[in-house]
Fold this sequence. Notes:
The protein has helices at 6-17, 22-25. By secondary structure, the protein is mostly helical. The chain has one domain (1-27).
Amino acid sequence: MLGQNDAATYxxxxxMGLIGAIPVFFE
Length: 27
């Protein structure tokens, strides 16, 4: 998941975290 889109992934993890979607990434 971490690679050329590392920055994008990092952004989405934090952006989605704002709406409580973090559990989805770690499920």
